Amino acid sequence: MILLFCGLSGAGKSTLAHSVKARLSRAVVPVEIIDGDTYRERLCTDLGFSRRDRSENLRRLGFVADRFAAHGIVSIISAISPYEDVRNELVQSYPNVKVVHIDCALDELKRRDTKGLYRRASLPDDAPDKLHGLTGVSDPFEAPAEPDLYFNTQHDSIDDCTTRICDYVLSQMAVAKRRRARLG
Ligand SMILES: Nc1ncnc2c1ncn2[C@@H]1O[C@H](COP(=O)(O)OS(=O)(=O)O)[C@@H](OP(=O)(O)O)[C@H]1O
Ligand SMILES: Nc1ncnc2c1ncn2[C@@H]1O[C@H](COP(=O)(O)OP(=O)(O)O)[C@@H](O)[C@H]1O
Q1: Would you list the domain boundaries of the chain?
Q2: Which ligand has the shortest distance to the CA of 157?
Q3: Which residue ranges have their beta carbon within 6 Å of ligand 1?
Q4: What is the ipTM of this complex?
Q5: Coil, strand, or helix at residue 104?
Q6: Using one digit for the tens of pLDDT, what is the confidence trace for 125-135?
């Protein structure tokens, strides 16, 4: 299974990816986190934040996620993934891709500002530290029309989100197991 987490910077993708991994490891379910930030430092160093590059970024993460998933590992892609067409492309290209929208209001993200990106995006255009094209501020984010799971992390606690995601994964795994048993 591939869990495709998408949402704005600071919404909670990495936090939830790690808490889900920790919780599922207790049930002996292997999880691999494929984090946009980390892969941008290694596999995707040539990519920036244009539409073309963000699309290529997600295609690469999807390919890696599928390789892990093929070996029974739950792959969590934790990236902003702002475009519906590329998310749908992954859903159609690989088996068992579930889209998880990690949502949060911009006001709350500006308050959290864990990496200082929102402050930098609000600087005057000629400021040396100005961040252009920040998703949700000066670059688009297309909310998934039909996510498999939806969270608003301003209202849903880390623990509640983690429980719902883990319950979903375990129930999907149980369905797949029953299907395999029926087919012999
Ligand atoms: N312009 C702009 N817009 C959005 N994000 C930016 C930008 N510049 C740098 N960053 C940092 O890059 C991280 C997002 O990388 P992703 O690979 O997840 O993005 S994308 O899916 O390709 O849109 C994102 O990480 P997260 O905060 O974990 O989401 C930011 O730290
Ligand atoms: N329900 C929640 N789920 C995830 N993170 C939350 C939640 N509520 C508050 N937070 C906080 O929001 C921040 C999210 O940061 P992070 O996980 O790095 O976001 P992202 O990976 O989407 O950029 C963390 O400081 C986290 O503690």
Answers
A1: 2-162
A2: 2
A3: 9-10, 14, 36-37, 40, 49, 54, 57-58, 79-82, 115, 117, 131, 133-135, 139
A4: 0.98
A5: coil
A6: 999 999 999 99
**Residue closest to 96 by CA, chosen among 145, 169, 158:** 169
Q: How far is the CA of 54 from the centre of ligand 2 (A)?
A: 21
CA 133 to chain centre: 19
Taking only the tens place, the pLDDT of each residue in 91-116 is 999 999 999 999 999 999 999 999 99
Closest-approaching ligand to the CA atom of 152 = 2
Residue of 136, 30, 106, 104 lying closest to 74 (CA atoms)? 30
Q: Give the amino acid at 27.
A: A
What CATH number is given for 2-162 in this structure? Answer: 3.40.50.300
Q: What is the mean pLDDT of residues 8-16?
A: 98
The alpha-carbon radius of gyration of the chain (Å, integer) is: 17
CA of 113 to the centre of ligand 2 (A): 10
Ligand 1 nearest atom to the CA of residue 131, by list position: 1
